[in-house]
Amino acid sequence: QKEVEQNSGPLSVPEGAIASLNCTYSDRGSQSFFWYRQYSGKSPELIMSIYSNGDKEDGRFTAQLNKASQYVSLLIRDSQPSDSATYLCAGYTGTASKLTFGTGTRLQVTL
Amino acid sequence: DAGITQSPRHKVTETGTPVTLRCHQTENHRYMYWYRQDPGHGLRLIHYSYGVKDTDKGEVSDGYSVSRSKTEDFLLTLESATSSQTSVYFCATGGGGLSYNEQFFGPGTRLTVL
Fold first, then answer.
1. Whole-angstrom Cα distance, residue B33 to residue B94?
2. How far apart are CA B74 and CA B7, in angstroms?
3. Contact A1/A26 with Cβ under 8 angstroms?
4. Which comes out higher in pLDDT, residue B41 or A21?
5. What's the CA gap between A85 and A36, in Å, rounded?
6. What is the pLDDT of residues B36-55, one digit of tens each?
7. A91: contact with B, CB 8 A cutoff
8. Which residues from A are below 8 Å from B100, CB to CB?
């Protein structure tokens, strides 16, 4: 059973809209979560980290964590074509800073 | 001035040959990781290291070995490559800075086993 689940997409949103990416996890002991952006043919790039319940905002990005419901989300405001990428959700498993990754959601921002 | 480099970036090899991939970091991070990324499977942990000479297995370690003789370098070896090991391999580091659990990725190595 995959511990971190994501819808593979593609999620298509028009330019300027809000993109909402979601992730659920099964391990209630997971303490912190991370969102990575991966462009085609490139390596994952860390864009957001969230460690406690609630929202964390950084520029156009907002990460939300709800431990009671075991979900994490990433909101991208004013989506741009340059945001088109695959977004990976990862949870910290509690040992040696190991992360468990979801399979990613592909986001397409259309003109 | 990239903090994490991988070599080679691309490699084509034949079944049964040994292959070694190298990861080098200048971040002085304690932890280092090797992942493989395949369509439909996402990133899967092969092996990781929590210090010099300290390594452990990940979820897909069969057919792979690792070594870490210096903080900066983490080697991944395929003793006898098979076609199922055709993949993109990423090295990551972590255990430094403000967040102990963040990981940062190298540029990747695309390996093709014929």
1. 8
2. 11
3. yes
4. A21
5. 10
6. 999 888 899 999 999 999 99
7. no
8. 97
Measured between beta carbons, which residues in chain A are less than 8 angstroms from residue B41? 103
Quick one: three-class SS letters along B29-82? CCEEEEEEEECCCEEEEEEEEEECCEEEECCCCCCEEEEEEECCEEEEEECCCC
Q: Write out the two tokens for A91.
A: 């949870």
Is B3 a residue whose pLDDT tops 70? yes
Are B103 and A92 a contacting pair at CB < 8 A?
Answer: no
- Residue B62 CA to residue B51 CA, distance in Å, equals 21
B-chain residues within 8 Å CB-CB of A34?
Answer: 101-103
* Rounded distance between C-alpha atoms, residue A21 and residue A11, angstroms: 8
B97 pLDDT band, cuts 50/70/90, is low
Residue of A nearest to B93 (CA): A97
Q: Taking 90 as the threshold, does the pLDDT of residue A102 lie above it? A: yes
Residue-wise pLDDT for A39-73, tens only, equals 999 999 999 999 989 999 999 999 999 999 999 99
Whole-number average pLDDT of chain A: 93
Cα distances from B65 to residues B35, B68, B83, B93, in angstroms, run: 13, 11, 17, 18
Cβ contacts (< 8 Å) between A88 and chain B: which residues? 42-43
Instruction: Please say whether the beta carbons of B51 and B42 come within 8 A.
Output: no
pLDDT at residue A3, rounded to an integer: 87
Q: Is omega for the bond preceding A10 within 30 degrees of 0, making it cis?
A: yes
CA nearest B34 in A: which residue?
Answer: A98
